[in-house]
Amino acid sequence: MLDQPDMLGSDIQTVSNLIASLQLQLDAMVKDGSLKADTKFENASVVETAINDLNYRGHIAAVDYVNGLAGTAIDAATENLKANLPTDVKADLSAKLSAAIQSRLDAMQAVTDGMTAYESSQMTAADLETFFAVTEDAISKLTQVWTNANAISESVYENEFTPGDVNLEPDGEVDATDVQMVMNWVGEGKTYDELLSENPRQAYAADVNNSKSINIADVVAILNIAIEDLNNPKAAPRYLAPDIKMSADNNIALALNGNENGVREYAILVNNATTFVAGQLDLKVSAGMEIVDIELTGRAADHEVYRYDNSTGARVIVASMSNAALEGNSGALLIVRTRGAGNLEVEGAIFADRHATGFGLGNEGLSGIDSITESCQNVKERIYNVAGQAMNRIQRGINIIRKSDGTTTKEMH
Q: Which residues form the domain of 257?
């Protein structure tokens, strides 16, 4: 922020003191007769003109000084407004800046009109006094412009954010921690409005595509920023496809693959003309049902599945920390096993491409295919402990390995 124009008062006072001193000298010359009778009026007029000219130039200098400060503050605010800001905040601050610019122009136009009249010797003594009032009013308005412009810059500092930097204490960096935080919000079903009420800056930073919602497209966008390791994350682009797109060429379906020992195995089929890198969907189960396990097929060899249980089933996210593409354009992507009577349903499927464009997938419901064993065989190898819990890696003791062809083995480590 610029320093306040403290010099202004002292400058005007210096000019005023000088004018007063000259006036005292003039009065003394008249009193002691230094100005002779035949030349008194002429000399007094010369001195008076000099005093007025000095007074005029002092006021102009004061206006120029404050106008310079106002201009510098406006330039700084204009540059600062290029930062990432909430749309409504930027609109409000831009309007305030426009008002400050116009106020400055109006103040200087009044002064300029008076200067033109003075320089052309069209200004009477009374006009000069009016002009001094105009300059003093201009100084007051320009000082307010300076104040308002600096307030705009302060507001920018308070509201700006780095896209993707959702840490509670922002560090200006976008990394895996930010990705995981946003992924968790998506998985837990936290809405943009909920986050906005809790922490506006986090909401703005998470909603990278400016859609006023938080979904898998934002996760992909933040991954892009983190992967590119931008030297200046604040310059990361706001993605230009905020709305979820729908296409008949992208759809999702559910197929029952088998039922063994009370456990049903379903395949979630994704048929896509668009190349996707990540997706989210909701699994709904009937009362009394439970989701036993969720696995990825070979179509997601470079991906991980993230499961977020809720009161109606689970939200599932399929993502890759390298934003790798899902393989193929059709077939099973996920294998879901359930226990208990009832039906499994898939809802709210949103998938995103490499450019963080979100696509809503049409729901084909339960497929009429009786068996899709071939498309389900190529599942990723999974590791379980003796309690049947899925593990990320081999553990000490007994490990149950379910291979990609569906066979299982027990291994001791």
A: 245-372
SS3 98: helix
Q: Are 294 and 308 in contact (CB under 8 A)?
A: no
Amino acid letter for position 173: E
Strand arrangement of the beta sheet that strand 290-296 belongs to = 290-296, 332-339, 263-271, 245-260, 358-366, 344-352, 278-285, 313-319, 304-310
* Cα dihedral across residues 289, 295, 297, 299: positive or negative: positive
Count of domains forming the chain: 4
- One domain, residues 80 and 47: yes
Q: Are residues 150 and 252 in the same domain?
A: no
365: region left, alpha or beta (phi > 0 left; psi from -120 to 50 alpha): left
Q: What pTM was computed for the model?
A: 0.66
Q: List the end-to-end C-alpha distance of the chain, in Å, as a whole number.
A: 64
> Cα dihedral angle (49, 54, 59, 61), rounded to 10 degrees?
140
Alpha-carbon dihedral of residues 277, 188, 223, 218, nearest 10 degrees? Answer: 80
Which is more confident, 35 or 173? 173
Q: In what order do the strands lie in the sheet with 382-384?
A: 390-391, 382-384, 398-402, 408-412
- Whether residue 168 lies inside any domain: the answer is no
Comparison of pLDDT for 225 and 49, the residue scoring more:
225
Q: Which helix (H) or strand (E) holds 188?
A: helix 176-188
pLDDT in tens, 359-407: 999 887 765 444 444 445 555 566 766 555 566 667 777 767 766 555 6
Q: DSSP letters of 2-56?
A: PPP-THHHHHHHHHHHHHHHHHHHHHHHHHHT-S-TTTHHHHHHHHHHHHHHHHH
Tokens for 29, please give them: 């010359």
Q: How far, in whole angstroms, is CA 210 from its chain's centroid?
A: 8
- For residues 109 and 250, membership in a common domain is answered with no
What gap in Å lies between CA 117 and CA 119, rounded to an integer? 6
Instruction: Write down how long the chain is.
Output: 413
pLDDT at 232: 47
38 sits in the region (left: phi over 0; alpha: psi -120 to 50; else beta) called: alpha
